[in-house]
Amino acid sequence: MALQIIDRRLAGKNKSVGNRERFVRRFKEQIADSVRRAVSQRGIREIEQAENITIPRKDISEPVFHHGQGGIRDMVHPGNAEHVRGDRIERPQGGGGRGSQASDSGEGEDDFTFTLTKEEFMQLFFEDLALPHLLRTHIGENPQWKSRRAGYSQDGIPNNLAVLRTMRGALGRRIALGKSAHREQLALQQELDALLAQDDGTSEAVAELQHRIDLLKERVGRIPYLDPIDLRFRARVQVPVPSSQAVMFCLMDVSGSMDEARKDLAKRFFILLYLFLTRHYETIDIVFIRHHTQAAEVSEEQFFHSTESGGTVVSSALVLLDQIIRARYPTGDWNIYVAQASDGDNFTNDSGNCRNLLADKILPLVRYFAYVQVAEEEQNLWQEYSQLLPVNPHFAMRKVSQPSDIYPVFRELFKKEGALA
Amino acid sequence: MTDHTAHNMAHYPVLERRMRDNPWKTAVVGERRQRTVPAQPLPAGARPAEPLPDPSDWTFELIERYHAAIAATAERFGLDTYPNQLEIITAEQMMDAYSSVGMPVNYRHWSYGKEFLATERRYRRGHMGLAYEIVINANPCISYLMEENTTAMQALVIAHAAYGHNSFFKGNYLFRMWTDASSIIDYLVYAKDYVAQCEERYGADEVERLLDSCHALANFGVDRYRRPSKKSLARERLEREQREAYAQQQVNELWRTLPTRPGKEGAAQENNRFPQEPQENILYFIEKNAPLLEPWQREVVRIVRKIAQYFYPQRQTQVMNEGWATFWHYTLLTTLYDEGYLSDGVMIEWLGSHTNVIYQPPVGHRAYSGINPYALGFAMYRDIQRICQNPTPEDRLWFPDIAGTPWLPALDHAMRNFKDESFIGQYLSPHLMREMRLFAVHDDANERELVVSEIHDENGYRGLRQMLSQQYDLGTREPNIQVWNVNLRGDRSLTLRHTQFQGRPLGDDTPEVLRHVARLWGFGVQIESVDAYGNNPVLLHTVAPSAA
Fewer Cβ atoms within 10 A, N terminus or C terminus of chain A? Predict the structure, then answer.
C-alpha cells in the first residue's frame, strides 16, 4: 500500500494565535480585572511576569438548546453489581445529573483558567494606565557626562599629544618635502662618480657638480624634523550619558491609621513608579522606609504586610531618607526618586519640620519626589507640603481615595513633569 | 460526553487536507467503489528471523518498517483503505489542530481560542495526554503522529488511525454519503477568507456577534435527511453573488407591504401560515427568511450551517468509528506479535495504552461518566467476531444471519451499513449485556426515587438494547425545536416550538439562545413548548425585538 511520510514539525505552529487574540479581546474586561487583582498581590519586582487568569465558567460558556433537568430519562449504565428489576434507588444528590448527563450540570463547577503571557499581561496593565505615550517622555535632563574619544585634532594640551600619530605625520612630511631634492642629489652624485673615475677630480665640471650637490644637501637638511603642523592630539568629546541606575525610595506611614485598603493604594502607586522607572533605567534599587514615630529601613515583605500602631512622626522617615542618600547613593551616580505615601496624619508640630527637611536637604538631591495622600481630609502635613509646590517643579502631591484614582493621579503627576522637562 | 456544539467534535475530526492539490479541482470520487472482503484472512508470509527493533525513539526508517508490516497484515484481512499519508507533528501543532475542530483551516473565532487555551493548560499541567492521533478523512488519508510518541505508540497509531479509521471513512455509508472531503476543505478555505473579509469590512465585533449567534444554533442548522450538494471552491465563489442577490429578492417578496390587488389571491394569502410546514433547520430558515439580515450576514449564517451539516454524520458514528479503529489496532498488532514481528516490549507498551483506552469504570466509580464509546464499540466488534467464530445456542437464536458465518464479511457489513443507533439496535448481544452488566435506570423527575427498569436478564435484553440504542439517537439527545410560525402581517415575530420528549424541559440556556435567535431574526422571538402529542402549548420565553 502506498505510503507517504511527511515531517511537518518545521511547518508553522501557532496557527491558533488569531483565535487566541480574539479570545483575549472578547474577555478583556474580566482579564483586566484579573490583572488588577494580580497586581495588588504581587511583589513590586515580580510585576512583570505571566499570570494565570481565571474567568467564571458561566461568562465563557456558549449557550445552546439542550435538555434541562426533569422529565423522564431512561439511562443504561454498565457495571451492575447488586440491582434487580424494580429496585428503587435514592436519587443522587444534586439532581438527576448522572451518567452521561453529568456534564450538563457539572459545567458550572470549575472556572476557566488560562495563562496570560508576560507581554499580554504588561500590555493590559499599561493599557489600563494609558501610559505608553507617557513613557516616551523623558524625565528631565540628565546631569551626567562622560568623555569619549573622538579621533584626533590639531590642537590640544601636551598631555593629550598622540606621539605616534605625530611622528608618523612628521615622517611623511619629511619624505614628501625631501624626495625630489634627494633624487636629484643621487643623480648628480652618479654623474660626479663617473667624472671622478675619468680624471683626477680637479676639473671645473667636478667642482660645479660638487657645489650643486652641497646645495641640495643643505636644502634637505633644512627640512624640520618636527613641525608644528605635525602635531596631533587625542580628541575627546563630552557626551551626556543617561545614568543607568536609579534608586527608588518608598516611604510609607504604617501607623495605626493606615489600614489594609490604604496600604493597598500606596502599593499600587509604588508599583507604578517602579514600572515607570524600569522603562528608563537598567538597575533599580528599591529602599523601603516605613515609619510611625520612628523610621526604619525594612524588607518589602515587612513593608507591606506587618502592622504597627501608634502615632506618627513623618520627619523621622525624612531624616532617615536623607541619611541613606548621603551614605549610599551619591547623587552623581544615582537617579533618586522618592515616593511617599501617608494618610496625612502627623504629629502637629512635626509638619513644618518636614517641609524644611524637604526644601533644604532632600529636594535638592532627588530627581523627583511624589507625595500621595491616601485620605481625603487635608491636615497640616498637606498644607505644609503645599507650600513647596510653587518653587519645586520636581515635587508633586496628590490625593487618592480609591484604587481607580491611582492611575489618573499617576498620569497627572508625570504629565506635569513631562511638560516641564 | 454530551455534544452540545459542533465545535466540540474536535475528537472526531474527519476531513482532508490537500496541501498540494489544486483547490479548484474536485477530486475524483471513483475510489469509493466497494471491494470484496475475503472470508478468511489470507495466509501469513514467512516468519521473520527476529522481531522489528524497538528502541523507544522512533526513526523514519523504523516507521516505514512498522508501517510495511502493518499494511501487509491489514491487506491480508482485506481492509479497504485510502492510501496513507503520515505526518509527524509536534505537541503544539497537535494542540492547534485540536482546537480548530481538527481542521487544518477554519475561520477565526474566539471560541477556538478558548478551546486552545483550555487544551494547552490541561496538557501543560499533565491532566491530559494529547490524543495519540488525529486522522483526517481524505484521499490520501492523513494521520498525524506526534513526535513525542515512542516507537511502540507510533505503531499503535498507525494501526489505529491509518488502517482502522481510514477503512471506516472509506466504508461507512454515512461518510460515503455525507462527507466529500475534497469539497469541505475548499469550503473551509473559502469560509476563512470570507469571514476575514467581513471582519475587515464590517468590523470584528459585528462579525463576532453574528458568529456567536450562529454557533448557538449550529446544531439546529442541519438537514437531517437531505444530502448537501458537492461544490468546488470556484463554484462556491461564483454562486455566492448570484445567491446573495436572489435571496434578498426572495426575502423582499416575502415581506412586501404593498397591498395586493383585490380579487387576485390576496384574501387566501391572509390565512396562510408561514412557514407552511414546521421547519427543523432553524439556521436555514433564518438564512432564507430573516427580514433584516444583510447579504453578507446571510452568507455567514450559511457558512456556519454548512460546517455544522458536515459534522452531523460524524456525531452519529462515535461508538462505531472508535470501536472499529480500536478493534483493528488490537487485531492487527496481536496478529503481528503472534507472527513474530513485534517484541515483547512493544507489546507490553501498546497494550498498556489500549487497556487505558477501553477502560469502562462501573457506575458509581469516581471516574464514571457514562459509557465509554471506545469500550462499547470495541466490545461489540469483538463480540460479533465471537458470534461468528464460536456461536452459542443463544447467539444462533439471536443472530441467525451471522452466527457461525465467516467473521470478516460479517464485520465488514456491520461497519458499512449502520450508525451508532442502528448498530447497537442490531448487534448488542445478550452475552455482551451480561458481560458489561448493563442495567437501565428510569428517572422520573416526579418520583422521589429512581427505579431500575431493566437488568441483564432474559426479560430485559430487548428493553436494554432498545434503550441503549435510543441513547445514541441524536434526535432524542437534543431537544426537538422547530420553526413553528411567523407573524407575517403583524409584528413579524418568530415562534419556535419545542416538542417535549418524555416530558423533558429545556435547559437554563434557553433564554440566552433565544436572544441569539432574536438577533438573527431582527424581530421578537418566542418559544413555546408542547407535549409529545403536540398538545397543550405553553409559552416559555419571549424576547422582544432587540434595539440593535
Answer: C
